[in-house]
Amino acid sequence: MSKLGSLGAKLYRGEVGYDFIGKRKIWYGVSILITITAIVGLVVRGLNMGIEFEGGAVFTTPKTTVSAAKAEEYAEKASGHDAIVQELGTGGLRIQIAGIDTGKSDQIKEELSQDLDISADKINADLVGPSWGETIANKAWQGLAIFMVLVVIYLAIAFEWRMAIAALIALVHDITITVGIYALVGFEVTPGTVIGLLTILGYSLYDTVVVFDSLKEQTKGIEKQTRWTYSDIANRSINSTLVRSINTTVVALLPVAGLLFIGGGFLGAGMLNDISLSLFVGLAAGAYSSIFIATPLVADLKEREPKMKALKKRVLAKRAAAAAQADGPATEGFQAEVPQQDDPEDAAPAGAGPRNQPARNRGRGRPSGKRR
Predict the structure, then answer these.
(1) pLDDT tens column, 176-224
(2) Crossing angle, helix 230-257 and helix 306-327, to 10 degrees?
(3) One domain, residues 147 and 103
(4) Is residue 334 situated within a structural domain?
(5) By CB neighbour count within 10 A (0-12 exposed, 13-18 middle, 19+ buried), where does 11 fall?
(6) pLDDT value for 333
(7) What is the distance between the alpha carbons of residues 125 and 199, in angstroms, rounded to a whole number?
(8) What is the average pLDDT score of the chain?
(9) Whether residue 198 is found in the same domain as residue 263
(10) Which H or E run contains 127?
(11) Count: domains in the chain
């Protein structure tokens, strides 16, 4: 832990760092590849929409000795549709059949009671119409659209429009990947999934805003210096907040992983799967996009500005002049020749290297000893 803290301090001070911005084309390529994979999975396999969106019925039985696999076979035979059966902690079964006409629920209930050897009066049936699920979906899309608009407005006011655009692209990136993973894994999409998707939007923005805030502070008066380009400072902002982002992401992922792999995997809690998978994928994608997508996009957009182009030109010219001065031949006793600069700030920076002053041969032709 002490080594991690020491690394974080060095990253913050700029003593060490990784060139995230310089390798941004690699990150863009990786993100495009992942996004295309998610879209292909979404198109080919589609989403496994839950009963809340497609309509259907949920039958809950009391304690029974019939296995979940056998009950699933009975339910599909009685309804003619695919069924999902889960064992409850009470020893009963939860039989979910989507896409059926709710008018057939009584008939299906009677057949299940005979197959499971349970009285029909003891089987509880909950019917869900497809219009209710459609209302939920519409409300979710409305909430997502309103959230996106508010985020763009806030970031444009608090920072600038380029950061707002970059954050919006990162959000779309995170949502696309999360939805694509749902399609590839085949998890059922329920209202819990919608809640998880809306929740990860805030987490996705958290790391992004932290980096943007650092970038905003460090780029104040950037045009007045000729040492760093905008990309250089953006890269330093990422490095200075890197350990913090990793720590917060890991701390957030640990309990979510517990819900997904322990609660959902071992205990078979369906609703936990729906929420935890979207949270787990969304948190990981949000941490990735804030470092590898959002900030590099801001650097690309900013360096299209004329004043940032001019700054980059001056910085590169200054570095070339400093390199030429350091590597060029110098005759002992004379100052190395430096090209003339129109702007005093374009001269080589202080401390770039020792300056050789002309030698002063005092007392030339005089004998050694005291001066007269």
Answers:
(1) 998 888 888 877 787 778 888 878 877 778 888 888 988 888 888 888 8
(2) 110
(3) no
(4) no
(5) buried
(6) 39
(7) 31
(8) 78
(9) yes
(10) strand 124-128
(11) 2
Per-residue confidence at 301, pLDDT binned at 50, 70, 90? very high
- 64 membership: H or E segment, kind and range: none
Count of residues making up the chain: 372
Question: What type of residue sits at position 161?
Answer: W
CA neighbours closer than 13 Å in the CB half-sphere of residue 276: 19
Q: Are 210 and 245 in contact (CB under 8 A)?
A: yes
Q: Is 292 exposed, middle or buried (0-12, 13-18, 19+ CB in 10 A)?
A: buried
Quick one: tokens of 108? Answer: 């299906």
62 in the same domain as 11: no
End position of a domain, from candidates 254, 288, 307: 307
- 226 found inside a domain: yes
| 243 shares its domain with 291 | yes
Closest CA to 160 of 311, 291, 299: 299
Q: Which domain holds residue 293?
A: 2-49+132-307
Asked if 202 and 282 count as a contact pair (C-beta separation under 8 A), the reply is: no
Chain Cα centroid distance, residue 163: 15
Residues 286 and 170 in one domain: yes
Q: Identify the DSSP state of 85.
A: E
Residue 33: which pLDDT band, with cuts at 50, 70 and 90? very high
Q: Which amino acid is at 295?
A: T
For position 92, which CATH number holds? Answer: 3.30.70
Instruction: Please tell me whether the overall predicted TM-score, pTM, comes out greater than 0.85 for this model.
Output: no
**Tens digit of pLDDT for each residue in 318-367?**
888 888 888 765 444 333 333 334 443 443 333 333 334 444 444 444 44
Cα 206 to Cα 258: distance, rounded to the nearest angstrom: 22
Q: Is the dihedral of CA 111, 114, 118, 119 positive or negative?
A: positive
